[in-house]
Specification:
This protein is an alpha/beta fold and 364 residues long. Helix content is 32%, strand content 21%. Helix 1 crosses helix 13, helix 7 packs parallel to helix 9 and helix 7 packs across helix 11. The longest helix has 18 residues.
Length: 364
């Protein structure tokens, strides 16, 4: 029998995906499951795909019920998660899939979320420099947001190597509708979403904006801009007519060797600049089980990462505009939520990092 884990807020999309992954995990036992307003309901009344949990019901979000678990996953609104976390014993390992503990800067929290800053936990993106060691040593970990995961993985190698300017970054990302949660909303009805792509939270107000900036600030190459606000992004999210997946397209002004290689704007210079960008991405993710730089000419697609914990990345130099273009695809419920949370839990519990996870998507 392996470590016993609990899931608080297990009735949502991320909670359901987490339960699916846990049900196939070789080293973990599923303990208490709570679901707030769905307390008392059978698990399969909400997640009919989880037939192996047909005998389980959701319980109330009672801290005493969760205390005996070796690790607690929280998939709840940030205010509820913060209140629950405060009631758990200090030694309880917790992975929070919500936003409550991601931001280090209280001012950013107040601006984008309002209210009192709940605090800051270890940021759970294992592929960032030095992050694995911090996650392994941590009792509490904040898993990144879905848009943030795709955007950070796309841009971090270029900023860390000094090949892109941190102060002029533009990100446009499309998400499947599961990223908005399970609550019934008129704008998310099938008849509203099908055949339509729409932008929302435009103008620098999306809550993942400061999260992306904070994480990228932490990887800047020496001399690339040491000030607190060196990284500035313009982020525009869009809603796509698909249930799951994120495709993030990020551009940043070329810098350093990549910029010098692109100065003449000829085909050979473009190839050299692209080669430098690819070298940086390949080096950053060499040996990573879940982040893959695709072969030249092959571009990421959300369908290829569906059902997996993978991130597919491609990069090219646009010498006409003097910018690097990076595209990343993930499953917003996988690497963008439940899969990444499980990846963090594996590290915290001393298990193989990839246990219970796959880098292979479902196709077609």
């Amino acid at each position: 029998m392996g470590a016993r884990v609990a899931v608080a807020g297990a009735s949502g999309y991320a909670g359901g995906e987490l339960l699916r992954l846990l049900a196939g995990h070789p080293d973990l036992e599923i303990g208490p499951l709570t679901a707030g307003s769905r307390a008392g309901a059978p698990v399969t009344s909400v997640h009919p795909n989880l037939v192996g949990l047909a005998d389980r019901t959701f319980g109330p979000a009672d801290p005493a019920t969760l205390t005996g678990a070796d690790l607690v996953f929280m998939t709840m609104p940030h205010a509820e998660a913060a209140a629950l976390a405060a009631q758990l014993p200090a030694e309880t390992r917790v992975v929070d899939l919500g936003a409550g503990f991601r931001l280090a800067d209280p001012a950013s929290w107040t601006r984008f979320y309002g209210g009192e800053h709940p605090g800051h936990w270890t940021y759970g993106l294992p592929e960032l420099p030095g992050a694995r060691e911090q996650i392994r040593a941590s009792v509490t970990v904040a898993s990144p947001g879905c848009y943030a995961t795709a955007s950070i993985l796309a841009l971090a190698p270029l900023l860390a190597s000094g090949l892109a300017e941190p102060s002029d970054i533009v990100i446009v990302a499309a998400s499947g509708t599961s990223g908005t949660g399970r609550a019934a909303t008129a704008s998310l009805m099938g008849s509203e979403v099908m055949g339509s792509v729409s932008a929302y939270k435009v103008g620098g107000v999306h809550r993942h904006t400061p999260e992306i900036e904070e994480a990228l600030q932490g990887v800047l190459a020496p001399g690339a801009g040491g000030s607190k606000n060196a990284v500035t992004i313009s982020f525009t999210p869009t809603l796509a007519p698909m249930p799951r997946g994120i495709l993030a397209t990020a551009t940043a002004r070329l810098a350093g060797p990549a910029a010098r290689a692109a100065l003449a704007g000829q085909a050979g210079d473009a190839a050299e600049a692209t080669a430098r960008l690819r070298e940086a991405v390949a080096g950053a993710y060499a040996g990573e089980p879940f982040v893959h730089l695709l072969p030249e000419g092959q571009w990421p697609s959300t369908g290829a990462t569906a059902g997996s914990n993978a991130a597919h990345v491609q990069v090219i130099a646009d010498v006409h505009a003097g910018r690097a273009v990076v595209v990343a695809a993930i499953d917003n419920l996988g690497k963008g939520a439940a899969g990444q949370a499980l990846q963090n839990a594996n590290l915290m519990l001393g298990l193989p990092e990839s246990a219970g996870l796959t880098a292979y998507g479902v196709a077609p």
